[in-house]
Write a structure and sequence with these properties.
single chain; mainly alpha; 434 Repressor (Amino-terminal Domain)
Length: about 100
Amino acid sequence: MKTRRYPEFERALRQIRKQAGVTQEQMAREMGITTSAIQKWERGANTPEFSMLGKIMGYFGEDGWLVLHSMGMTVDEIRQLCVGFIKADRGARSKSNPKRDEA
């Protein structure tokens, strides 16, 4: 299955990280994830699960959402981005944890 791209998110993540003066390595270390994951998100090669999106925005605080909005994204577009992440996260979870029939 092909990963859906969110160019607005890719640009926003890179922009807010640089504005905060944080390297990919620092962010990865502080969040307990790999540098490779951040590189893939910023290139659009992969997207984070919705729960990780919340952690990313929490890492940068309120500025995380403000950057998305300042890039021209409306509240509805940000909401749609979040809905896309929720659907992708649910789909990934349902594939990795199929419901088992009870005996």
